[in-house]
Amino acid sequence: MRRIRRAEEMIVERYPEEEIRCPTHLSIGQEAVAAGVCLALRPGDTAVSTHRCHAHYLAKGGDLRAMFAELYGRATGCCGGKGGSMHLTAPEVGMLGASAIVAGSIPLAVGCALAATLTGSDEVAVAFFGDAAAEQGVTHESLGLAALRRLPVLFVCENNLYATHSPLRARQVSEDIAPRAAAYRMPGVIVDGTDAVAVYRAARAAVARARKGGGPTLIEAKTYRWREHVGPNFDIALGYRSQAELSRWMERDPLEGVARRLLQAGVMEAAHRERIDAAVEAEVAQAVAFAKASPFPSAEQLCADVE
Amino acid sequence: MRQLKYREAIDEATRQAMAKDERIIVLGVGVDDAKGIFGTTRGAFERFGSARVFDTPLSEAALTGMCVGAGLRGLHPLLVHARNDFLLLTMDQIVNNAAKWRYMCGGKLRVPVTIRAIIGRGWGQAAQHSQSLQALFAHVPGLSVIMPATPADAKGLLMTALSTDGPVICLEHRWLYEKSGPVPEEPYQIPLGQAGLLREGSDVTIVAVSHMVLEAVQAAEALAADGIQAEIVDVRSLRPLDSATIVRSVAKTGRLVIADTGWKSFGVSAEIAARVGEELFGRLRAPIRRVALPEAPTPGSSALEQVYYPGPREIAAAARLCLEAAHPAALPERPAPARPRDFHGPF
Question: How do beta strands B180-182 and B3-5 pair?
Fold first, then answer.
């Protein structure tokens, strides 16, 4: 979680330099969902994501240097500079990519699960998506397909209450998305998306169920993005959400929450946390330096990897 | 060589490809039912069973995405649609995902997915069951689009598609299904991007797509009776498009008629005309003529269907116009084309 947070804060710091020349959708405030879910997975399990995919990529084990190189559009990026922030991919750790079309990648996870089932593997597939995806037909088609064939899929909805600047209440009749799972006879679980432990427990149960052939689960994590929809800034001045609301969620900082519990339980000492922070700081700085020192893709790459 | 019907050739290609490659699965609405997509998938079901050939919900978009995901994880799904109009429900998955995933990942992943879909015509199919949508798909880098016109090509191109690591869309014209032709028994492949030279001639080139290839053959026979030798190029593969064969032929004849099953504007015929114009400006001996659908959706009434679809008569007229051998105004009123005996209702 610290890596995710610090990496995205680094994007905030570097973005005004205009060397990162792609839209970046930050997950600051939502880290517990990616971390909690991916901790319940094995490297061989697969995940797909959306335009807001940094956290999923990193939590799944994606290389930090390759991520920054991708943001900087370099040949050493995880997509060779062809994907940018919205399509982070690391097949070597099961991160199979991300679609920037809302709900677009959800059926891909169903396909990964189908492949696992047909080849006799016990791999599990995860689809990360946002609350607005629940408004699109392909989500429901995917839930139906996975349920019908009892496929090992975790549908993980990060309900952060907003689609760009449109609040959930203007888009959906219910504030909860998980109950829709009942229509497909699969468990629908609501978890506190600021609580990494709660997310992990829900994911662990769903993974165990899926691995045993019990079929898919829909997990709805209630969460909140601190920054604007796209870009490094805060956007309270736009008026679509209030400072009070943001402050309430910031008080529930997922990093502080998990750190407090670890400290209180005596699992982690303050010095240990400082060491983690220092290591992450160095790693992120090195990743940026690596990205900046890397070459851009050659012009010959323009039409490679097409057909 | 033995004769097979077009639909039998597809069935055989599917079975042979599946026998060779256990990654191939066949799915879609009705692929395992008694009719098995006009007899093209039932054989695979009987041979390989429900683990590899299975019916699906009518969730076209999710099915397509599921195939992309399964393709990323080592399978090669063959998704079948009884009408290509249903592909419009899947455009996001085809255009945004199937076509682009490999590119977006910097080549780390590939999407081996084959999508078969059928173009309807006649028997009142009307506007939403008859469209010829190849131009929509051929427009998109990352997709391959094939339109076999003969049983032999249907087998060879489909077997190629099923061995290719990228997404291939195979559009089949319903009226071709009962046509017979020589088809080798052993498995074989026809490369994508290789047009077929169906008939040699010196006076005019007819470049035809899918069912229009059959119409072009009839037109060429009519022209031959008047001493006009037409060369016929069967496009077979729209993307990649074999420009070289087309340009070589037109360079020889100096005249080009393009016959497409789709609409004219912004369509396949426009693309082919543009490429020939780019390559052969100054060497054309007549303006390029296009025979394609009128700018209207397909009407349901059989009376209107008869004037909607161009055929051999229009192709021959276009060729004559290129040769200035006749003026279309001099032609008598278009007679109703005969409904082919091998096509019956209700479907």
Answer: antiparallel
Contact pairs from chain A to chain B, CB under 8 Å = 150
Q: B336 pLDDT band (50/70/90 cuts)? A: very low
Cβ count within 10 A of residue A226: 16
Amino acid symbol at A96: L
Q: What residues 246-305 of chain A have any CB closer than 8 A to a CB of chain B? A: 304-305
Q: What CA–CA distance (Å, rounded) separates B243 from B270? A: 13
> Over the stretch A161-173, which tens digit does the pLDDT of each residue have?
999 999 999 999 9
Indicate yes or no: CB of A105 within 8 angstroms of CB of B97. yes
The verdict on a CB contact (< 8 Å) between A141 and B51 is: no
H or E element that contains B117: strand B114-119
Instruction: Give the nearest partner residue to A89 out of B73, B75, B105, using CB atoms.
Output: B105
**CB–CB contact B68 A107 (8 Å):** yes
Dihedral-angle region of residue A120 (phi above 0 means left; psi in -120 to 50 means alpha; beta otherwise): left
Q: Which residues in B185-205 are b (16+ Cβ under 10 Å) and which e?
A: eebebbebbebbebbebebbb
> Residue B326: pLDDT above 60?
no
- Amino acid identity, residue A107? P
Interface predicted TM-score (ipTM) of this complex, two decimals? 0.95
Q: Is A144 exposed, middle or buried (0-12, 13-18, 19+ CB in 10 A)?
A: middle
pLDDT tens digits, one per residue of B59-111: 999 999 999 999 999 999 999 999 999 999 999 999 999 999 999 999 999 99
Residue B335 pLDDT more than 90?
no
Nearest CA in chain A to B59: A141
For A:68-87, CB contacts with B below 8 A are 77-83, 87
Residue burial B99-125, b: 16+ Cβ < 10 Å; e: rest = bbbbbbbbebbbbbbbbbbbbbbbbbb
Share of chain B above pLDDT 90, in %: 91
Chain B partners within 8 Å of A305 (Cβ): 102-103, 105-107
